[in-house]
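Re: the request from the purification team.
They wanted to know what the chain is likely to look like in 3D before they choose a buffer screen. I agreed to run a prediction and write the result into the notebook, where they can find it.
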Amino acid sequence: MEIIKYILLGLLQGFTEPLPISSSGHIFIFKSIFNTALFEDLNFEIFLNFASFISIIFIFRKDIKKLIEGFINNIKYSGRKGKEEFDYCIKILIGTIPVGIVGILTKDIIEQVLSKNVFLVGFGFLITALSLILVINCNGKKKDNEITYKDALIIGIFQAISLVPGISRSGLTLVGSLLCGLDRKTSLKYTFMLYFPVSIASMLVGIKEFISTFELSMIIYYIVGMVSAGILTYISYNWLTKIVEKGKLWKFSIYLFAVAIFTIMFFI
């Protein structure tokens, strides 16, 4: 039974991570309803996040390779090669700055207040649902090389708002991208390019405690949860791609409204 809990939580993490429905919000709900110590295991959380991270890296492996090669060539050849890739990397950096600043300034508030109040998570779901409705008809024309530094900063601000539990990172970043005139495919790619530095930073924050508290006897549980999360992240992302390309993001709003009402009423 114990190993089943780890598998189920891995599936929950994997399914919700790419989708615009807030994986952290869902974890908070399950944690509050089932009140299990499993949700307090930071090491397991790091393993699950790493599994989703690896899965999304695999999905974007060609894009990442192209960006790295272009970035290096731009430096190596003094801007004569790889300019587009170099500029795109800079826009990823710019898009990450707001979440970094807000994260540092509000870390204690989020951990001590917002992350422990599931009632407020319900309002986070509502904000995400309303945001997704805003972009029902949005489908700009901008491609990767047409993203401006201003766009990157605005989208980064949208991503920073998602630090509040219940507000989806991928959802708000997608909304910001679409409102800036990026087409749907470009919006989806940029959203997950911004995911990488944020994910790396969050894992590095927890690495010190991970090293000091890791128990080798738990490794089999972590592995099964990690495999579950990785596989479902891959499946979930591919499903999201089809929904975004068809302009059906509003369907997630229906689900989020239902979850928000349940969460708010359940924790009144």
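For the purification team: The longest helix spans residues 83-112.
Please add any questions underneath this entry.
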